[in-house]
Design a protein that fits this description.
The structure holds 2 protein chains of 2 kinds.
Chain A: H1 5-18, H2 43-54
Chain B: H1 9-15, H2 21-29, E1 47-57, E2 73-84, E3 89-110, E4 116-122, E5 128-135, E6 139-143, E7 150-152, E8 159-162, E9 166-188, E10 192-202, E11 206-219, E12 224-241, H3 250-253, E13 266-269, E14 272-293, E15 296-309, E16 317-323, E17 332-340, E18 346-360, E19 365-376, E20 381-393, E21 397-408, E22 418-420, E23 425-430, E24 435-440, E25 459-471, E26 476-488, E27 504-516, E28 560-578, E29 580-581, H4 584-590, E30 601-617, E31 623-628, E32 630-640, E33 658-664, E34 667-677, E35 681-691, E36 723-724, E37 727-734, E38 737-748, E39 757-758, E40 762-772, E41 777-788, E42 792-793, E43 800-802, E44 805-807, E45 825-837, E46 847-878
Parallel strand pairs in B: 16-22
Antiparallel strand pairs in B: 1-2, 1-27, 2-3, 3-9, 4-5, 6-17, 7-8, 9-10, 10-11, 11-12, 12-14, 13-14, 14-15, 15-18, 16-17, 18-19, 19-20, 20-21, 21-25, 23-24, 25-26, 26-27, 28-29, 28-30, 28-46, 30-31, 30-32, 31-34, 32-33, 34-35, 35-36, 35-37, 36-38, 37-38, 38-40, 39-42, 40-41, 41-45, 43-44, 45-46
Chain lengths: 73, 879
């Protein structure tokens, strides 16, 4: 890991943004449209698990505000 | 949290109506799922879903002391809905409710301090028995010259040697409930979208409000999506400090003598101390998702959060061992004290996360790989790796095994406990004045920040699980998940985490029902199900009030109906005996078991909320089957009665604070049988069974060195008995008018449940009339008579330890709510209701109803709170 995580991330981000991806025409996107290819296939369940992780792990913050309460237990 | 994956299929497909086959294919294929980092309300099908989840931790290692306290567990209920208001405007909301209870670490201390002490008690024969552990935050220990704690044999035994082990000090919390509601409203343009959201999360001791805004931009023929979001959260803590603990917390104990941190944030209300704190959190994130090939995609995002204010956990204290270095003896004496943890007032958190999804064609599976890096200026660095294999199976199953690894370094101010090389206090005797002056430790010699919260320690966590999804039709899916979680210091990336004393395991299990509103009426391929037009095949019942259950049947074989029912009732105001208000003295003298006890406490209010899911299926036109799981939560507050006697030893002493319970209630199974069906008149009978899935063994936690038994009958979550629930329902209508009547009963089929009691049987008769005001709105008026018997039997005695003595029954007996005779009664109510049926458009068939039930006459058994009324709200959709 680079010492500055932000910098490391920026490098990867820029690389991916700039590198030439395969040209995928709209009619070639059938596979991408499958439910299994969704970035989050089980969203409600993930939210439940994330809430449990969030009340037990330090690295819960940093994402968009969605409440979650104190988690003081 | 809003679940968003699929793109705007509907809009795209509608546009395709006039195009060629190629164009149609193109547009359909462009409906890419989830090319989004933050879920975006504008990009998904309309959906309604309900989820139940359970989290359960294992017991902690306490070494020599038996740990019989139930570890922390949480019950969670989620309801979510997402609907298209117009083609371009979408609305989503979530409701989440968590109830948790059980034992968690309040601090960490040297094992030799015996922070968890055996609760010992004498039996009737005088034998001393160990029955459990009780938390001690202070004490005295011996240390050697190197400040290593020393262990001695039990009961003043000889020195055994140095012992550097530490242990969590566990404290048990009574059940508490958190409720959260949030929404998102989104507008979509052709290649961009904007959504705004907000919400509220409320607990007894914590409240937060939040708002967010997200934008999405599609580029490059939607191969690339950029997301930018920002959010703000404002939270307030008002934590009631455990009254057993507060005399031992140095911040409170010395507040009147010296200037102590947080002293100005602690409010005193009678015997209660409430710690107040405010915090705010700003967050921004930037994300990019990219289609890499026709079978792989990628997303990456950066997040930054700035938090400021009171960032502490109000229930965590840090153990400080004060050792006066001027001691000359061979062994040093350490004074063990506890202080509220002190975290920095600011925290800056950075996130970088990335996810890669690859389709594995030979198996038609999808491999998901994720990595997240986290850094904050408390010096916590964390890495999360996760992998999922989403495997479709047959036409309708999906099985997803999953593994996750997490590792974090400790915060720079984390320490299991602190050693302060100074005297806790020094007393000087002034011979001239004859006075003793005491000076306390110099708090400037303590670190500016400290915490022993294990969430800030270094450790690793490995978890694995599986999710199974069964697609019942295009529209309806059932989902179940399980995950086992192992937290251990040795699992930290470099193996150098916290000691094994802090290790624990946990499991999470959940079940979910989802209805894709956009896909209703579409059967599974090859399923052979016939096509229904939803909303079209159930009988006319538009004006049955929301509070009437089993009011209608579906008459088309194969039809389904999904409903959600919320019921709220409140008791508050005067205490009644029969139908008359009584004063405190009457309750003191007569409200509790006559002679044996006089009452000391009385309830000030009791709220009950029920969330029910109605799942109805019509195998034939004359028989409908119904499954009704429910989730409940209750809250009650107590006050001291004027003229109450002193609390006897072993009696329930809480007052001024609330009790709460929550979780799964009883589950209903019903069969509705049609008896008579003419255009104007309909009659059906319902046979129901209520299965005792709700807990009836919830106990109050040990306080004031006293065990406590079962929480009041009415605060238990179920009946504990198998109950028979028959009803007979008649409905009729003519033009805009409708009417109906129902008789129903609840008959307990067992004399007592596993806790020793049974609620009284219930009989209810109700009748109503309704008028259809226009195509979509109708109104109803209802009368109702209900009769419920008192509780029969009583809680089995709970043997407990009070002030180190065994007591044969520690069940609370301090107020009328603890006595079986103060349950049930005879009630007359009047209901006013509104019903909305959406007649056409994309939401055709959705029905909403709301009814307020106003008590007209109340005659209560024993001594009970008056009734304020009840609200019922329902949503139904048949398809």
């Amino acid at each position: 890991m680079l010492k500055n995580p932000l910098l490391a991330g920026m490098v990867v981000f820029s690389y991916l943004s700039l590198s030439a991806c395969q040209a995928v025409t709209p009619w070639q996107r059938g596979i991408l449209a499958k439910p299994s290819m969704a970035l989050e296939p089980h969203p409600a369940q993930s939210a439940f698990r994330e809430h449990a992780y969030g009340s037990r792990e330090a690295a819960a913050g940093g994402s968009a505000a969605k409440g979650g309460g104190c988690g003081c237990y | 949290m809003v679940a968003i994956k699929d793109c705007k299929k509907k809009r795209l497909l509608r546009r395709a109506s006039s195009s060629t086959v190629t164009q149609a294919l193109t547009l359909a294929a462009m409906a890419l799922p989830g090319l989004l980092l933050q879920p975006d309300v504008t990009q998904a099908d309309d959906e309604v879903g309900f989820q139940y989840g359970h989290y359960q931790e294992s017991r902690r290692q306490l070494y020599t002391v038996p740990n019989n306290a139930n570890p922390i567990e949480a019950e969670s209920l989620l309801g979510h809905a997402r609907i298209s208001l117009t083609d371009r405007i979408k609305f989503a909301f979530n409701y989440v409710q968590d109830t948790w209870s059980g034992a968690t670490p309040v601090t960490t201390s040297p094992l030799v301090n015996r922070g968890n002490r055996s609760v010992r008690a004498a039996t009737s024969t005088g034998r001393i028995v160990t029955v459990g552990a009780s938390p001690y935050m202070t004490g005295q220990i011996k240390l050697d010259k190197n400040f290593t704690p020393l262990r001695y044999g039990d009961n003043g035994g000889p020195l055994i040697g140095p012992d550097e082990r530490v242990v969590h000090v566990l404290s048990t919390a009574s059940p508490e409930t958190r409720k959260q509601g949030d929404f998102k409203l989104g507008y979509e343009w052709d290649e961009s979208a904007l959504d705004i959201g907000g919400g509220l999360s409320v607990e007894n001791d914590y409240e937060s409000h939040f708002g967010n805004v997200n934008t999405r931009w599609d580029f490059n023929q939607k191969l690339t999506t950029l997301n930018i979001g920002a959010s703000y959260t404002d939270s307030a803590t008002a934590a009631i400090i455990d009254h057993d603990a507060s005399p031992y917390i140095t911040n409170i104990a010395l507040a009147s003598l010296i200037d102590m941190p947080y002293a100005d944030q602690i409010e005193q209300q009678g015997a209660m101390r409430i710690l107040h704190g405010d915090r705010s959190d700003w967050s921004v994130n930037l994300g990019l998702s990219q289609v890499l090939t026709k079978s792989s995609l990628f997303e990456t995002s950066f997040g930054f959060t700035h938090s400021s204010g009171y960032l502490e956990n109000p229930y965590k204290v840090t153990t400080i061992v004060f050792v006066d270095p001027k001691q000359t003896s061979a062994q040093l004496t350490g004074n063990v004290k506890a202080m509220l943890e002190q975290r920095p007032d600011e925290r800056n958190q950075f996130n970088f996360s990335t996810r890669f999804v690859q389709h594995i064609s030979p198996l038609d599976a999808a491999l998901h790989l994720g990595y997240r890096y986290y850094h904050d200026d408390w010096d916590i660095n964390a890495h999360t790796f996760d992998a999922e294999w989403v495997q479709p199976w047959g036409h309708s199953w999906t099985i997803t095994p999953r593994i996750r690894y997490y590792s974090q370094t400790a915060a720079n101010f984390y320490s299991p406990y602190l050693l302060s090389k100074q005297a806790y206090s020094t007393s000087l005797f002034d011979e001239t004045t004859g006075r003793v002056t005491t000076t306390y430790f110099d708090k400037n010699l303590l670190p500016a920040n400290f915490s022993s919260d294990q969430r800030l320690s270094g450790y690793g966590a490995l978890s694995g699980g599986v999710t199974v999804v069964k697609q019942l039709s295009k529209a309806i899916s059932l989902e179940a998940g399980f995950e086992y979680y192992i937290h251990a210091g040795s699992l930290k990336l470099d193996g150098s985490g916290e000691g094994s004393y802090s290790d624990f395991n946990a499991f999470m299990a959940n079940a979910e029902l989802n209805v894709n509103l956009s896909a209703l009426d579409q059967p599974l391929p090859d399923s052979g199900h016939e096509h229904h037009h939803h909303g079209a095949h159930h009988q006319h019942h538009a004006v049955s009030p929301a509070g009437v259950m089993f009011d209608h049947m579906m008459n088309e074989p194969g039809a389904y109906m999904l409903g959600y029912r919320y019921m709220y009732s409140r008791q508050a105001g005067d205490m009644l005996h029969g139908d008359r208000a009584v004063n405190d003295l009457a309750i003191v003298n007569n409200g509790c078991s006559k002679g044996a006890y006089r009452c000391r406490l009385t309830p000030t209010y009791m709220d009950m909320h029920m969330h029910m899911l109605d799942i109805m299926y019509a195998p034939t036109d004359w028989l409908n089957l119904m499954l009704m799981p429910q989730f409940m939560d209750m809250a009650m507050n107590l006050r001291q009665l004027d003229g109450a006697p002193e609390a006897p030893a072993g009696a329930h002493v809480h007052s001024g604070t609330g009790h709460a319970t929550g979780g799964i209630g009883d589950t209903g199974l019903y069969a509705l049988v049609k008896l008579f069906d003419r255009p104007m008149h309909h009659l059906h009978v319902t046979f129901g069974l209520s299965a005792p899935t709700g807990d009836v063994d919830i106990k109050l936690r040990r306080t004031h060195k006293q065990d406590e038994g079962y929480i009041h009958y009415g605060m238990q979550l179920g009946s504990g008995t198998w109950d028979f629930k028959p009803s007979l329902t008649y409905t009729g209508h003519l033009d805009a008018w409708s009417w109906g009547a129902q008789a129903n009963a609840t008959v307990r089929m067992e004399d007592n449940n596993d806790s020793g009691f049974a609620f009284g049987d219930i009989f209810q008769a109700t009748w109503w009339g309704g008028y259809q005001l226009n195509r979509w709105l109708s109104t109803s008026l209802r009368g109702s008579y209900t009769e419920q018997g008192a509780v029969s039997g009583q809680f089995y005695p709970v043997v407990g330890v009070v002030d180190n003595k065994f007591v044969s029954d520690v069940n609370p007996k301090a107020g009328p709510m603890d006595y079986p005779s103060s349950y049930g009664g005879r009630f007359w109510d009047l209901g006013l209701g509104l019903n909305v049926t959406i007649p056409d458009g994309q939401f055709a068939g959705n029905r909403f109803a709301v009814e307020w039930l106003q008590p007209v006459s109340t005659e209560l058994n024993g001594y009970q709170l008056d009734r304020e009324g009840g609200l019922s709200a329902t949503w139904y959709l048949a398809f």
